[in-house]
Amino acid sequence: MNNESLHIYGPILSPFVKTVILLCEEKSLNYTVGLTINGEDVDFKSEQHLKLHPAGKVPILFHNDFVLCETVAICRYLDQAYPQPSMQPEDIYERALHDQWCSILAGEFNLPIIKNYLLEFAFPKGENGQVKMDKIKEAEPLLLNVLSKLNKELQTGKTLGQNRLTIADTLIIPILAYIHGIPHGSEQLKRFEYLQDYIAKMLNRPSCMKLLK
């Protein structure tokens, strides 16, 4: 396949767009990214965007004449289209557990953290553009609950943080990098030893250094 025709529609600041970019970087694929389609600007949630994804989400992958949306589906497709290096376990049971965690990370963990925590830092709604710390405090139990569950999973060593990068890793590390880069978030991460080690390890990968630092 000709990887020159890979285009990722979506803003590069999106953690889900970053997930697909990380996968492409790990596989040394050539790609373009941005809010354009066939070289023309396409506004987020515009009529043209909604024709491609009924909920107006990103990313959307354009590979030659093939169009695909939803982050996990895109990552699985690219991993099959460009199998080296493989980013999914070969064993059927290990892959099933990996897929399980991909679903949990993409939906149950990432979306609530983005909506209830990260967006307030990215687009503050307080007076004079200040972060509403009462909203952050309100979201803190949710954040700590997710971080605690991730820390526990890393402690088991079954899915995340293996010797090779997996799709599951690419789903969570952009979110963790954002949290790590926020003083409040960095302070919360100090409670979780395995998470701190995992973030440090991931951010030292060339692909993550290029995109996330």
From TrEMBL:
This is glutathione transferase. The keyword Transferase applies. Keywords: Transferase. GO terms for molecular function: glutathione binding; glutathione transferase activity. It is an enzyme of class 2 (transferase). The lineage of its organism: Bacteria, Pseudomonadati, Pseudomonadota, Gammaproteobacteria, Oceanospirillales. The keyword DNA repair does not apply. Residues 91-213 form the GST C-terminal domain. SUPFAM superfamilies: GST C-terminal domain-like, Thioredoxin-like.
